[in-house]
Known about the structure:
Blueprint: H1 10-13, H2 26-31, E1 36-46, H3 52-61, E2 68-78, E3 83-88
Antiparallel strand pairs: 1-2, 2-3
Amino acid sequence: xxxxxxxxSLYRQVKVMxxxxxxxxxxxxxxxxxxGTHILRGEVRMQAPHSWAARQLARLLGSPLHAVNGTIRxxxxxxxxxxxxxxxxxxxR
Length: 93
């Protein structure tokens, strides 16, 4: 039996947040909706990773290796079978 995709957020469906999900800012709730493209922008200030392990983790996650300060953009493309997150950090200074 095939089920139609739910229009409810996975965060609410699996009870990770339950009804607390409804208390989030509307932009955050939209960002986590199950379908479509969603973009959030904000300000970020990041320090450079100091240890070897932190630099390796930053490389693995695609995070900046140098201190950055500026606008960050998150893009999330959600389809029935996958979700893709893309982070756009400000350029290194």
